[in-house]
Amino acid sequence: MAERRGRSYSKRVWVLDPATGQRKQVRITARTKKELAEKEAKLRLGDAPLAPASLTVADFLAHYLAVARLSEATRRSYQQAAKRFVLPLLGGLKLRQVTGFHVQQVFQAASGSSYAQQVGALVRGLFRLAVREGLLPRSPADGLEGPAPARTERTARAWTLDELRRFLAVAAQHRYGRFFFVLATTGLRVSEACNLRWSDVDLAAAALFVRRSKSAAGRRRIALDPATIQVLAAQQAEQARRRQLLGPAWQEHDAVFDRGDGTPLAVRTVQAVMQTLVARAGLTGTPHTLRHTHATLLLERGVPVHLVQQRLGHSTSRITLDAYAHALPPAERLLVTELATLAEHEVGDHLVTIRALNAE
Predict the structure, then answer these.
(1) pLDDT tens-digit series, residues 115-155
(2) Looking at residue 264, what DSSP letter applies?
(3) pTM for this structure?
(4) What single-letter DSSP state applies at residue 325?
(5) Helix (H) / strand (E) containing 15
(6) In CATH, what number is assigned to the domain containing residue 248?
(7) Are the C-beta atoms of residues 52 and 94 closer than 8 Å to each other?
(8) How many CB atoms lie within 10 A of CB 214?
(9) What is the dihedral of CA 59, 63, 68, 72, to 10 degrees?
(10) Can you give the residue range of the structural domain that contains 299?
(11) Same domain as 274, residue 220
(12) Which of 74, 107, 137, 218 is most buried, taking the most CB atoms under 10 A from its CB?
């Protein structure tokens, strides 16, 4: 860490002494932090290699586990993670030869396993220490996404159609029932549904638009089936009555789904309500289960994979798009037809409410 000394900054840096082959600390000084960082980079990236040619990942891993400040339980779990994933792929490599490609192979191998979190933390900690001790100019793990966490049966399993109907029948009795219905028939992420605005919905065109997404694939158009259009229309009408009833107390956010006063629903609120509803239905699941079930049911009914991927906002391969781009319009009609067939049975008590509203 840089230290302020009068009008300058200084820092101790580990470097390799080319004369002795041993690591040593040197102090560098500069007038600004930027100049200090530039000096450090030049020092670390000198002609001499930072790590001795003979130092392997296995050797340095043993050093890391010995000096790192870890609880005994964490140390044991890291040893198991290293034995299973890190050493088989990296152990024999020289430390200075490891690249991001090698690290990504380890992360991919550990993805979905019970050791995913430990492998990510171990590998990042290992290479951070190598950088701090002057053995590497930078960590090969920088900028890489860690191993995907293990997916439990509760989050990974999709519901059957009968289970989905059972849940929606229970959810229809709750004031947020329409929210869960729309999740089930559109495949929206929970955050996307919470952020949905009426300006994103075009009931006449039977579509809604996801515009608030970090990725290009996430920004998309989603076709709506007739039952979902009815549910959204009922939500709009019921919301208009509440707006008129509350008057100045109404908080206008243009939110499709609100807490009762116009304020958008929060993800945490939805998650808490979902726990109650799935318990009443005798099921297990999270809001994401509705999205997972949506995709599974469509694929089981023959909807093309690339259309389901587009609908969910997942990135798709160029090869798939090139091969099936000509089929997009008719295939989308197939998708909406399948949704309408499902919704005839799933809408349940929602249609009772809709018909009552239409009769007024």
Answers:
(1) 888 899 999 999 999 888 888 888 999 888 888 776 543 44
(2) B
(3) 0.51
(4) G
(5) strand 8-16
(6) 1.10.443.10
(7) no
(8) 7
(9) 90
(10) 161-325
(11) yes
(12) 107
